[in-house]
Amino acid sequence: MQWEYLTVQTTLDDGELGKLGAEGWELVAVVSPAHFVLHYFFKRQMRSDAR
């Protein structure tokens, strides 16, 4: 199984998180390296047409 990864460095609201989930992205980590800064890390199984 191969994965693709996405990093988002802007704050996401519930609607944006839901949209990413509907696209198959799974949230695997949220890191806050500084105050009021969030980095979201997502993964999803790579689609066969993207290989």
Structure summarized in a few sentences:
The protein has 51 residues and is of the alpha+beta class. The protein has one helix at residues 14-22, and strands at 3-8, 26-34, 37-45. The chain has one domain (3-50).
Total helical elements: 1
What is the mean predicted local confidence, pLDDT? 92
Q: What is the alpha-carbon Rg in Å?
A: 12 Å
Indicate the low-confidence ranges by residue numbers: none
Trace the largest sheet across and list its strands: 1-3-2
Q: Distance N terminus to C terminus? A: 11 Å
Dominant shape = globular
Number of strand elements: 3
**Biggest beta sheet attributes:** 3 strands, antiparallel
The helix content, as a percent range, equals: 10-25%
Strand content: over 45%
- Give the domain tally: 1
Query: Structural class from helices and strands?
Result: alpha+beta
* H and E string: EHEE
Could you explain how this protein is built, in words?
With 51 residues, this protein is an alpha+beta fold. Helix content is 18%, strand content 47%. The chain is built from one helix and three strands, in the order βαββ. β2 and β3 form a beta hairpin. The longest helix is centred in the middle third of the chain and has 9 residues. The radius of gyration is 12 Å and the shape is globular. It starts with a strand and ends in a 6-residue tail after the last strand. The mean pLDDT is 92.
